[in-house]
Amino acid sequence: MTYCVGLRLRAGLVMLSDTRTNAGVDNIARFKKMQVFEDAGERSICILAAGNLSVTQSVIAQLEADIDHVRAGGRGECILTTETIYSAALLAGQVMRDIQQRDSSSIMAQGAAADATLLFGGQRRGGELRLFQIYSAGNFIEAGDDTPYLQIGEHKYGKPILDRVIRPETTIEEAIKAVLVSMDSTLRSNLSVGMPLDLCVIRGGELSHKELRIEADHPEFRQISDSWAASLRQAFNNLPNIKI
Amino acid sequence: MTYCVGLRLRAGLVMLSDTRTNAGVDNIARFKKMQVFEDAGERSICILAAGNLSVTQSVIAQLEADIDHVRAGGRGECILTTETIYSAALLAGQVMRDIQQRDSSSIMAQGAAADATLLFGGQRRGGELRLFQIYSAGNFIEAGDDTPYLQIGEHKYGKPILDRVIRPETTIEEAIKAVLVSMDSTLRSNLSVGMPLDLCVIRGGELSHKELRIEADHPEFRQISDSWAASLRQAFNNLPNIKI
What is the ipTM score, two decimals? Predict the structure, then answer.
């Protein structure tokens, strides 16, 4: 499985993914699930992927091929040239639909699941920060102020902390801590989600991204994980007793 | 849906269930999912149920009917008369299997799910504290020192806190707080789990139970919920920043 989370805040986009994939518990591997597509100063897009790896890799490969084609002077559009981020998400949704149409019945005939979902976040020059969740059918939903975050994969373990702390006005620094704590809870409770992590931040208006690979021995991540565990224990000890 | 959790500690059994059931989001109701069967001083058993309500109610009704039958001098056994708690769980598993055989194909023919699971915890005079999770097929697993808790229904939201604080030597008082915090996180993140709650404690060797219905305005539960939220916020504020 996978756990990916994306936040659309006033200050920017914060996206985090793990790197574990598994076909059964005896076939575990490490794949990057985060891809950044950027035309610096013009637009920056970050895509996180969950679900059938052959499907999500095919979608990413096709999006890359389209970019190469357009950059080489070919006709048509790619996610870096559409008028808006919304149209870029539409395009990614169409690619998802095409791959599903090509592959899903054969995959399912083998008894495997072809489901795949993407978190698609980005900003173009002159546009707003946008964050979409694209489904297997190519349709999508968008994060807004009421729900500023989207999750794909093993999302339940790490949802409570996001529900408690994430607001549209949350700062990037707070948001990074929140997604890391959300991931930390998921890592502890579900073996199918694993280190290392990939973190991407696209600050509003910068039209470029910052990316960080967080390995298991990353000192600040370890500190966050340990400090959170200790604080929870202390918070827990301070709770009042219930009489029964 | 449902969220039920049971702990098997050195000190006793702690079991907690919500009361929300739903057939679609437009058909929400309140049903007690906790049943206690007791022959005080001899044995005490607490059963929590998740899944198809018609199935779990049928199982409970049959277990009650068997008890009535035996108490009226009828032949055969019931969960209060089997030699051990293990045999009582076997008996409940057999009832589950019988009900599934009778009902599940018709339920599934209507497009509904017949899955059901039980947490079955108890102690008999002279025996150990036991806690089982009984599946739709009537088979079951048992909690042990390595994993002293079992969950059924919407278990993922509330799992991280249990992983962090529950050990076999956890006291009953701490355990009650832990299951309430686990439930609180689930209630905040999943609408299909709802107040009021039912809490049952069977202390080791007492062979009797204590039960508490916790309504939404229960003052200590509100205090736990609010204090936990405030502590998490504070713990969160104290986390170190990650540079990117």
Answer: 0.78
